[in-house]
Design a protein that fits this description.
193 residues, alpha+beta, 4-stranded mixed sheet, two-stranded antiparallel sheet, 3 helices, 8 strands, 21% helix, 27% strand
Amino acid sequence: RLAVTVGGGTGLLDGIGAPDYRAFVSLAYRHPPEEHVEAPKEEVIRTNKIHFEFNKSRILPSSYPILDNIVAILKSRDDVQGIRVEGHTDSKGSDAYNLKLSDRRAGSVMDYLVSHGVPREKLTSVGKGESEPIAPNDINGKDNPSGRAENRRVEFHLSLRPGSKVKVLKDQQEGPTYIEGSTPSEPQPKRKR
């Protein structure tokens, strides 16, 4: 990384003050090239098919198939270095209450993953409350039940090893359906005809 250059030669011009001969020495240090460190990539699995008891963090048994599918995905991916489980709510209720509820629900989902074989050291959970809506909770001042249904969701943020390819899955999820007169913050199962 150290370079020494020595050179010499005759003067370039004839005249007063121009040297007959010139010599030079140069000393240079080259910094090592910076290594390019690729940042981890993130892949997100989003679902509004994980349901809880009303105003509680207990997962309803109807949610187990989707959670089991997510467990299978996580256990099959050796490129996943970390998983952040995020809980999200709609805007019904106070900000503080929704933040605590979403935090408890994200923790319940994390506990489910651990109890089904996903290593705890890869997992964290956080409640986001109503702070990151993906749809309007109301439109022109009127309640928007379908938007609120989209906002009540769980997201799995997968931190992937550098060099991994991010998989993009088409969202084929149907929104929850509500029965007239039911509590709007809790989905009801669809009835088959």
